[in-house]
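Thread title: Can someone regenerate the structure for this chain?

I was given the following input by a collaborator and told the matching C-alpha cells would be attached. They weren't. Posting the sequence so someone can regenerate them.
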Amino acid sequence: MPGHPVVGNIFHCIENSHKVLFVLSPSFVNSRWCQYELFFAEHQVLSKNEDSLIMVVLEDLPPNSILQKRKTYLKWSPEEHKQKLFWSQLTAVLKTTNEPMALTEENGLY
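Best answer:
Regenerated them for you:
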C-alpha cells in the first residue's frame, strides 16, 4: 500500500496471498530486496506447511545461484511453441490448492 513501510507491505502481501509467484532473473539474484522477499515467502511456506510458492525462471541464472537449491520451477522459453505449454502449466499450478508439503528427510520435515 502506498505510504506504508516496504517491509510491512512485503509481510502483509505474502501472508495474505493464496499463491506467491517469483520471477527469477539475474537481476532478481542480485537484488537484496528480492532475496529478502523470497526468504520470507519460504519461511511462510515452511511455517504454514503449504505448497504456495511458485518459481518461474525468466532467464538463465548464474551458476551456483539461488536456483541450485530449488527443485521445482517453471522455465519461460523464448521459443513460441514452448510458451503455450508454459502458460498451461502456470495456469494449472495457480488453480491448485495449497496442499501440505510432502514431509521428507531431504527437506528437513519428517
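The beta strands are 20-24, 53-57, 74-75.
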